[in-house]
C-alpha cells in the first residue's frame, strides 16, 4: 500500500512538472499558440484604447462572444508586461496554478490526507493534452475554470447563508468570464436547495443580482449588443450530430475509468447514509458534464470545453469511498 501511495504521488508530481516545464518554455513565445489568441490581444488593446467592447459588428471590430472579465483583468496586467500575448498567458498560467491549489485543498479537506490531494492535482494536470493544451493560452477558459472551481468549493463547504452568497458571487464572476458557468451554477443551486433553502436563497440571490445587474448595465452601455454576443451569438451554432456520440467514444474515452470511480463513490455514499454528500456530488458531476457536453456538441466547440469535466473527475476519482481513494 505504501509503495502504491508513493508511486501514485510521484506520477502525479511528474504530470504537474511536465505541464509547468511546457508552459514556462512557451509562455513568452511571440506568436500565436492557438488561432484565436490574437483576437484576445485585440480585445485587450481595445479596452486600453478606451473603446467599448460590445458594439454593432463592423469590418473594423467584432466583439468576443464571452464576458469581459478576463480581458479587463489582462488589461490591468498589460502595463506591467507590455502589449502582446504575455499578459493573457500569465493570467491563464496563474489561473491554472489556482486550479491546482483549489483541487488539492478540496480533496485534502474531503479525505483529510495529503496524498489524494496531490494525486487529484496530477490527474488534472495530466489532462493538459486531452483539453488541447489550453491551460496557459491567451484565452478565457482557465480563469473561468479557476473561478468555477472556487465557487463550487465554497458552496460545498458553506455552512451559512453568507458563505453561500459569497459562493454565488464567485460563480457570477465565472459567468462574466465564460457564460458556460451558468450550467453548473444552476446544478449547485439545486444541490444547496436540497439541503437548506436559506443557503440556496442567498446563493441564488447573489447569482441573480450580479449576473442580472451586470447584464442590465452592459446592455444599457452597449445598446443591447452585450446580450447579442454573450447570450445570442453562440446559440446560433448548429449541433454537430456526430459529436453526440464521439463525445463519449473519443473525447471521454481516457476518462471513463475516473467516471466509473466517481459513480462508485456516489453509490458508496448512498449505501453509507451519506445521501446529502452523494446528491451534492451527483449534481456537481452532472453540471460539469453538461457544461462540457453542451459546448462540445455545437459546431465550433473544441476540446478545451472538456476542462470542467476533467477537473470534476480528478476530484471525484480520488475522493473517499471511490476505489482509488480507498487505496490512497
Structure in words:
The protein is mainly alpha-helical. The protein has 15 helices and no strands. Helix 4 runs antiparallel to helix 5 (114-125) and helix 12 (256-271) packs antiparallel against helix 13. The longest helix has 26 residues, at 86-111. Residues 321-328 have low confidence and may be disordered.
Structure summary:
This protein has 328 residues and is mainly α.
Helix content: over 70%
Written as H for each helix and E for each strand, in order along the chain, the element string is HHHHHHHHHHHHHHH
Structural class: mainly alpha
Mean pLDDT across all amino acids: 92
Number of DSSP-assigned strands: 0
Features:
single chain, 328 residues, mainly alpha, 0% strand, disordered C terminus
Summarize the SSE layout with pairings.
Elements: H1 2-26, H2 37-48, H3 69-81, H4 86-111, H5 114-125, H6 141-157, H7 161-177, H8 182-193, H9 197-222, H10 225-233, H11 243-251, H12 256-271, H13 275-296, H14 307-317, H15 323-327
Amino acid at each position: 500500500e505504501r509503495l502504491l501511495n508513493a508511486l501514485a504521488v510521484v506520477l502525479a508530481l511528474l504530470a504537474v512538472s511536465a505541464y509547468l516545464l511546457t508552459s514556462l518554455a512557451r509562455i513568452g513565445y511571440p506568436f500565436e499558440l492557438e488561432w484565436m489568441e490574437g483576437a484576445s490581444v485585440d480585445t485587450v488593446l481595445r479596452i486600453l484604447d478606451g473603446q467599448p467592447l460590445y458594439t454593432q459588428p463592423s469590418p473594423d471590430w467584432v466583439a468576443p462572444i464571452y464576458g469581459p472579465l478576463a480581458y479587463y483583468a489582462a488589461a490591468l496586467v498589460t502595463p506591467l508586461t507590455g502589449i502582446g500575448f504575455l499578459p493573457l498567458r500569465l493570467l491563464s498560467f496563474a489561473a491554472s496554478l489556482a486550479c491546482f491549489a483549489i483541487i488539492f485543498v478540496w480533496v485534502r479537506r474531503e479525505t483529510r490526507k495529503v496524498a489524494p490531494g496531490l494525486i487529484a492535482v496530477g490527474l488534472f494536470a495530466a489532462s493538459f493534452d486531452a483539453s488541447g493544451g489550453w491551460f496557459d493560452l491567451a484565452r478565457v477558459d482557465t480563469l473561468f475554470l479557476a473561478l468555477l472551481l472556487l465557487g463550487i468549493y465554497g458552496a460545498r463547504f458553506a455552512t451559512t447563508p453568507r458563505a453561500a452568497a459569497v459562493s454565488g458571487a464567485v460563480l457570477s464572476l465565472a459567468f462574466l468570464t465564460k457564460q458556460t458557468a451558468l450550467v453548473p451554477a444552476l446544478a449547485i443551486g439545486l444541490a444547496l436547495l436540497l439541503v437548506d433553502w436559506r443557503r440556496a436563497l442567498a446563493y441564488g440571490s447573489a447569482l441573480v443580482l450580479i449576473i442580472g445587474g451586470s447584464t442590465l448595465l452592459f446592455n444599457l452601455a452597449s445598446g443591447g449588443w452585450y446580450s447579442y454576443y454573450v447570450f445570442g451569438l453562440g446559440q446560433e451554432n448548429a449541433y454537430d450530430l456526430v459529436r453526440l456520440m464521439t463525445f463519449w467514444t473519443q473525447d471521454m474515452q481516457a476518462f471513463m475509468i475516473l467516471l466509473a470511480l466517481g459513480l462508485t463513490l456516489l453509490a458508496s455514499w448512498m449505501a453509507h447514509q451519506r445521501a446529502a454528500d452523494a446528491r451534492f456530488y451527483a449534481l456537481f458531476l452532472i453540471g460539469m458534464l453538461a457544461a462540457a457536453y453542451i459546448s462540445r456538441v455545437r459546431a465550433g466547440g473544441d476540446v478545451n470545453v472538456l476542462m470542467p469535466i476533467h477537473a470534476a473527475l480528478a476530484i471525484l476519482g480520488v475522493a473517499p469511498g471511490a476505489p482509488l481513494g480507498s487505496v490512497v
